[in-house]
Amino acid sequence: MPSLGADMEAGTLVEWRVQPGAHVHRGDVMALVDTEKGIIDIESFEEGMVERLIVQPGARVPVGAILALFEGEPTKLAPPQSAARAQRVSPAARARAAQLGIDPQTLKGTGPQGVVTLQDIEQAPAGQGPPPSPAAGRAGIRNAIAVSMSRSKREIPHYYLQLTMDLRPALDWLEQFNASRPVPERLLLAALFNKATARAAAEKPGFNGYYGKAGFEAAKSVHLGVAIALRGGGLVAPAIHEADQKTLPVLMRELQDLVMRVRAGHMRSSEISSATITVTSLGDEGVDVVYPIIHPPQVAIVGFGSVVERPWAIDGRIEPRPLVSVTLAADHRVTDGRLGAQFLARIRDFLTRPEDL
Amino acid sequence: MTADAVESPRMSYRDALREGLRDALRSDPRVFLMGEDIGRYGGCYAVTKSLLAEFGEERIRDTPLSESAFVGAGIGAALGGLRPIVEIMTVNFSLLALDQIVNNAATLCHMSGGQCPVPLVIRMATGAGRQLAAQHSHSLEGWYAHVPGLRIVAPATLDDARGMLGAALRCPDPVLIFEHIGLLNMEGTLTAGAVPVDIDRAAIRRAGRDITLLTYGGSLYKCLEAATQLAADGIEVEVVDLRTLRPLDDALIVDSVRRTHRALIVDEGWRSGGISAELGMRIVEQAFFELDAPIARVCTAEVPIPYPKHLEDAALPSVPRIVASARALVSREP
Fold first, then answer.
1. How far apart are the first and last CA of chain A?
2. Which range among A25-34, A35-44, A108-117, A171-180 shows the weakest confidence by mean pLDDT?
């Protein structure tokens, strides 16, 4: 069971997408897992032949538990500590745990051979009710956001910078690019925003990475998290991998694919927890400016407001121009305002020369 | 206790069995005894000693050495309206009468649509511990408990040794009474006053909350001794005396395991296919989700009972083995 977020402790296997004997490649979807973020597609970390499925659909197992075995070298599949057998639980303890909403797998057994006994359950900290059904997982998203955002506001000293950008060059280029293309191949402004942010992040490593126990560690690639609102409420921010290296048409396709899959409840495990920096856009909702909150353990988030036509002084004249307010919320433990200003300025530079994106 | 109750004198389990026989012979003229050497010799285990002089040859009848013949005669007498009590020397020899017991006594009532009940009582010795070797020491009562139509009882206390016979004679089905040879010399006193004894229920001989020991017959006292030792370590053992092996008192057994969440079965029979397996399975069927530890068994080693004392002792359930098994089920790791 992979960790699909810093706060994830366990997941419920919903469905297997492979059977023993199947040959899978790295990245193939192997199973669906229900988490507080919704149902996630779990991708294979390895290429190989599935030897045995360990966990049955419906079972809730902790992060690190083995879901399935590959033929060949099992050491490559999982870290050694997760190779341990699932915690043994006596029937009476299991029944009582279900009543109390305690996950017995998380307890240390004190019975013979380390089995979790009735007494272990009754002495365990109070449970959180029965394990959530997929429907109840929607409420879990709210909880996951609460945990993550509270941690962010508690731990991360945010600083905010805001820069208004003239999008005339970007929109002109976009119009020209789209004119000769059929609808499915046309680009949206969001693709440009994402690419510009990704490339700025690649140039300014202090905004791209994780702040952990050992301090900040810059990421080697830019995995751009894209905040996507869910229909039932809440939002998730899955990552487009190596967004700075991808062409605009590819980015556009991936963005559309991501939005569709997120709303259908099919995020992939590799994109759910890997973002190194996040972009959020509330332009569709008509707000001028977003003051976003950093998603830990990331260190920066970029917000795009609405594109609005406003008077803009240029070369001594007032002209109507399509403007957007771009905000940066960054972690002051890692960067300072001057670097942040340079970062925003790079986004503006990229959007001014979209042909180079 | 009533005011005129008189304290009973000390007596042995063997004496209690004899008192039960005398009660039956005195109270019902249809009752008679037959078996090998029960008259002049007084019975191979001296249970029927002096009864010939007291009740005469008509009612205390020595038989030829033919288990099949005299058990069959007992069935005929029961069908004819008498209340025969047949003694077979040991359960091993009862196998010579297996056809009469299983094919006739157990079936006739059913095959006749209830017209021909067989109110026969067969007493036999069972168990090991007295260096009588493999052909006289086995515990095969679990086999008989497999057979519908029979009722199987195993008195372990003086009260049951005396009182179960009366209940058996009142039962319309053939009843097999298994008397453990290790208990014959055990001394005690009967409960004062007339206590009606049933052959339907198990009994809790010691109450406890940590683990249930299920046992019967000669193993009961090993379990009680083990319970005393375990109590010194704060482990509270409940000891259930099954008393009746067919039908088993599921209600009491399951209720006890529901309270203690652990069960250890102690049976002098062999493990494979034995009554201990049946008990374990019934617990799993009816109380699986109450179990907090695997069900465990202490049974006799799967060998014909050895003759040498040290090997016989090693083969049989012992107090140390019971204590160790119980401790393993309730042990806690830090």
1. 38
2. A35-44
Phi, psi (degrees; rounded to nearest 5) at B88: -110, 135
> CA–CA distance from B151 to each of A128, B32, B123 (Å)?
52, 20, 12
How does DSSP assign B25-37, residue by residue? HHH-TTEEEEETT
Task: State whether B289 and A95 contact (CB < 8 Å).
Answer: yes
Catalytic position from the list B19, B36, B87, B136: B136
Q: Is A98 on the interface with B (CB under 8 A)?
A: no
Measure the CA angle with vertex A6, ends A128 and A160; round to 5°. 115
Establish whether B261 is a catalytic residue. Answer: no
Residue at A203: amino acid letter:
E
Q: Could you count the other beta carbons within 10 Å of the beta carbon of residue B75?
A: 23
Nearest to B274 by CA among B153, B123, B145: B145
Q: What is the pLDDT of residues A49-103, one digit of tens each?
A: 888 888 888 888 888 888 888 776 544 444 444 445 578 899 999 888 888 888 8
ipTM: 0.74
DSSP-derived 3-state class of residue A27: coil
Angle between helical axes of A189-203 and A248-264 (0-180°, round to 10): 110
| One-letter identity of residue A15 | E
Whether A228 has a pLDDT exceeding 90, the answer reads no
Q: What does the alpha-carbon distance between residue A208 and residue A200 come to, in Å, rounded to a whole number?
A: 9
